Protein: Phosphotransferase
Amino acid sequence: MSSSVARALTATVRAAAHGPHAECTCPARPTVLADRDDGTVVRDGATVAKAHAPDTDRTELAARLAVAAHPALAGVLLAPLDLPAAELDGRQVTFWPHGTPVDADAPQEAPWEEAAALLARLHATPVEALPGSLPAMRGPHKAALAVARMRRTGPPEQVAAVVERAWSALPPWARAESTAPGPARLCHGDLHLGQLVRHPAPHGPWLLIDVDDLGLGDPAWDLARPAAWFAAGLLAPEEWLRFIGSYAAAAGPAVPLDADPWPVLDVPARALTVQTAALAVAKATAARRELDEVELALLDACDRMASVPPQLPAEAAK
Structure:
């Protein structure tokens, strides 16, 4: 195990899956799926336990879990297991059914169409049908955290300056300094291919997972990471077209159905580019290594973005 949290969470998920005194007969040993500051995830058989970040707001997490379990989101979000809440060293622990993730070794099989269709259904869910009072979607907050992390690592001044220029050119709402304009819709908040699983495993339908950033906000944010990758040359045009075409076909409300989507996607895509570049710079600085080819492409995208006003379509910045 890579940390004391992962070791303790293994015992927690085993007790949840089999009872506190039953012997585990699963064919495979518990597996640590993730172990980061913002969450530790361990699987034991068909049960997955997640220890959320220490600063997770309990009320907000409860609201997000209620949405994931709500019938209106059946077939869109993976629902949590109906198991008693747990706590581990002050961190909230939730339990989930295991699903089969996207195969990172088969990028040609990435479920871009399925991801887009799920987002369209998520965004179209009537807010008034949801239980309780939902918090804001945390996408812009995570972008701000990424920039703060970069600053703490003390990267080379000329590298940091490129990211900072692109960051400062964004409107306040994209930097988590104000509320996003326009009507708020239900958003995932951190969409990438690692947020999809097949359930029931291994061949069930695709579902969205990870509700830590779920909330109300601008639905264009959920389309922004693939848009940013496409603009930076990291996502093939045909994959981008598959993604945005599937979203439009499912009547997703984030972009106009009969007009260029880039004016709507421009600011969120810029923000996600800055977020990804800031994290890349922070990790490279901490490891005392040079930026790799992909990371340099992100830095170059930030440099080009800074020369074009954000209100222009992103197409003009490419």
